[in-house]
User: Fold Inosose dehydratase from Thermoactinomyces mirandus.
Amino acid sequence: MFRKDAVKLGIAPIGWTNDDLPDLGKENTFEQCISEMALAGFTGTEVGNKYPRDTKILKKALELRNMEIASAWFSAFLTTKPFEETEKAFIRHRDFLHEMGAKVIVVSEQGHSVQGQMDTPVFDAKPHFTDEEWKRLAEGLDKLGELAREKRMKVVYHHHMGTGVQTTAEIGKLMDMTDENLVFLLYDTGHLYLSGEDPVEILKRYLPRIKHVHLKDVRDHVAAKVKEEKMSFLNGVREGVFTVPGDGSIDFTGIFEILANSDYKGWLLVEAEQDPAKANPFEYALRARRYIREKAGI
Ligand SMILES: O=C1C[C@@H](O)[C@H](O)[C@@H](O)C1=O
Ligand SMILES: [Co+2]
Assistant:
């Protein structure tokens, strides 16, 4: 059983409006999105591009609904651009999140990433970093980790389909090459399962370094189609490869048990990008909330 004060439940706006596929949910407003999140029983969210960037306005809208900001995605380009470019953008992002009260900063290396390319087959064309790129990535992440620590925050690295840090071996290499006190891991069930990794094994292995969790489920039959038809990551999303926990093929029982019996403290954040015209986001948020109550007892 989870300790009541250990975890908070959040949900990402990506089921309502998808920043990577802006036509998905373009009709859904920021207010509708956060109101439905709160109504479904969540108290936190990540930041989508419809959210106001003025922290006063954003805080007020969230406070009215008893919601808070858990974190927000940051794209790093440590392998392909001068460090200073990533550093400058990171500091702006960090300060915004700090002002909003978040404790973790989601970072993903987007150098050579194919996750945003509409026609690149995600299973065939993921990048592989050279030794030099690994070094730049690890050293850069340590520096971002130090910048986060200045504000008593943590960098949580997001392994991701279509990027250079996707597989078990790549996650292991990143964990080995970075400072365990500066760079932490974001555990995203959907990306691990879709990639063919064992989510339970990764959870057990890196538990002390996991400081943020994305709960995402995968529809097996769509995943098979994405592979066979050489679809891109985004076309896979459009096709419905991801869904909310309990609606796909991942059994979350063991995952919840391991987290509940560990020292994990932080967010469990449902993140299920799919077409809101096919999967009503409010309805799916309610389903996710019910599943978490049944399986995790919270
Ligand atoms: O955390 C995430 C943020 C999204 O932009 C991304 O593409 C999604 O798959 C994800 O896991
Ligand atoms: Co995620």
About this structure: The chain has one domain: 7-296. Residues 158, 188, 214, 271 surround cobalt (II) ion (ligand 2) (CB under 6 Å). The mean pLDDT is 98.
